[in-house]
Amino acid sequence: MKLAFSTLGVPGMPMADVVRLATEHGYQGVELRAHPEEPVHPGLSAFERGAVAKEFEQEGVEILTVAGYARVAAEGDDGPVLAEIAGLVELAHDLGAHNVRVFPGGGDQDPAAADETAARRLAAAAPHADELGVRVLLETHDSHRAGTDTARVVGAVGHPRIGALWDVMHTWLAGEDPAAGQAALAPHLGYVQVKDIASADDLTPLPLGAGVLPLRACLDALGGDAWDGWVCWEYEKRWHPGAAELPGLLAAGRDHLLRLGATQR
Predict the structure, then answer these.
(1) pLDDT tens digits for range 59-93
(2) Roughly how many angstroms between the first and final C-alpha of the chain, as a whole number?
(3) How far is CA 75 from CA 72, 83, 179, 188, in A?
């Protein structure tokens, strides 16, 4: 497997330091949180985007994903959502990133209506993403927490540039068995986000292996050491400032994932 970590775990960190962490701790890629409070966001100039891309390229670290916050199932007009996705796709293209992450955000709507809205918007975004060589990945999250929920939307779009991102915490919170979630997502899967927590009532991030999430079962469902895709550690330090600092955990987290991935039960 190829390993990445999310900059959600190192809020506000300059890109030079992010690249250094990846190279020093054996991570081949990084998922960049795209938000105005971070160094990378859609408001960057062409010069700034080029500088970020060069920083990563020089050290051989891949920018796996631009992790945006567009909510494709949210109520309201399509225009602002599609414009937000387009901006993220263009940022990803300029940085040389493979993917853009979007959320469902369907809220309390009727599930069928939320599905239809999300599929319509993703289908509308697909041609632009295809033109720029970027894949838009709908994360298992909020209103579409289970793999079956996300796969239902992505499958309805039926475009190769629209895929799914498996956040293993959210499928677990949905009560979905890892094998069932993987089976639903497999035709559309971009990559996997891992993390660990103490319980469903305490989402404070923990070192990998220190909590309750079924990480081994998830990696086994992917095929164990046959899985050659990306696994990204999304350590949610931004939302839990009292959590331990991620840099000191990266080496042990890498080793834990490699051990789990080397054995398939």
Answers:
(1) 999 999 999 999 999 999 999 999 999 999 999 99
(2) 17
(3) 9, 15, 32, 25
Q: What is the pLDDT of residues 177-217, one digit of tens each?
A: 999 999 999 999 999 999 999 999 999 999 999 999 999 99
CA distance 224 to 228: 9
**Encoded tokens for 257:** 């994932």
Tell me the pTM: 0.97
Closest CA to 171 of 197, 189, 136, 147: 147
Distances (CA, A) of 51 to 15, 78, 89, 220, 246: 10, 32, 18, 38, 25
Angstrom distance (rounded) from CA 35 to CA 97: 16
How crowded is residue 101: how many other Cβ atoms within 10 Å of its Cβ?
A: 30
The amino acid at residue 96 is G
Residue 245: which of 187, 214, 206 has the closest Cα?
A: 206
The Cα–Cα gap between 71 and 65 comes to 16
Nearest in space to 225 (alpha carbons), one of 28, 1, 4, 3: 1
DSSP 140: S
